[in-house]
Amino acid sequence: MEWEWATDPLTLEDDEVHVWRAQLDAPEAVIHQLRETLDPAEVARADRFHFEKDRRQFVIGRGLLRTILGRYLNLKPHALRFGYAAQGKPFLMEIGDDASSCCFNLSHSAGVVLIAVTANRESGIDLERIRPEFANETIAEEFFSSQEIAALRGLPTHAQPEAFFNCWTRKEAYLKARADGLSFPLSQLSVSLIPGEPAALLRVHGEPDETARWSLLHLNPGTGYVGALVVEGPSPRLRTFRLC
């Protein structure tokens, strides 16, 4: 997977999804500039973080999101207004008479952020750093389906951490796409997880039409990380960009 530098003007077709990757680290001057793009509620949220590292990363992530969306909409980042769905998923609000067609989602882990942008299609994205100590059978038995547990156990030990996080990120991306948060049990859906095999939503308990409603894509954010993207509708053309 190649992460390219984007050039303006940015165009986003209905059958495309753009995924942006950036580091959650920046000089103080840049952080200050990004903070200036936030609205008062976002500034207050940033200031509620106990640790300075978390405050900085929130400002960078939200500021980069505003910067990216502003490029698509030809608007200043500070002009964007966000609303929040019942489960907390953010969305772009109308700006004047303009109703934006941009849908987006973001995820961050261990200093890296991924931002997905689509046109008129819901999406969910998830990113995790592979942590072998976290990828244990006890957690799998609590959150994975019986189908996924069997697939995980059938793999060599060295392949299990990547498979574990393939499964985890794909489930989380799906739930973020449908904005269910924690209300839908992770064990009630099944995804593919074996490294090297195509990403797929295999089953959603009690909702047989869901597997045809969504497309699931594997993302390779970099060494030591795993990512997943779920997009509403048929499989989109994926373009991946690096921001910094």
Question: Overview of this structure, please?
Answer:
The chain has helices spanning 28-35, 40-47, 52-73, 137-143, 146-153, 160-177, 210-213, and strands at 4-5, 16-23, 82-84, 90-92, 102-109, 112-119, 123-129, 189-191, 201-204, 214-219, 225-232, 237-242. It has two domains: 11-125, Ribosomal Protein L22, Chain A; 128-232, Ribosomal Protein L22, Chain A (Alpha-Beta Complex). It is built from seven helices and twelve strands. The protein has 244 residues and is of the alpha+beta class.
Q: Can I get a quick summary?
A:
With 244 residues, the chain is an alpha+beta fold. The chain is built from seven helices and twelve strands.
Topology:
Elements: E1 4-5, E2 16-23, H1 28-35, H2 40-47, H3 52-73, E3 82-84, E4 90-92, E5 102-109, E6 112-119, E7 123-129, H4 137-143, H5 146-153, H6 160-177, E8 189-191, E9 201-204, H7 210-213, E10 214-219, E11 225-232, E12 237-242
Parallel strand pairs: 1-12, 2-12
Antiparallel strand pairs: 2-6, 3-4, 5-6, 7-11, 8-9, 10-11
Helix pairs in contact: 1-3, 2-3
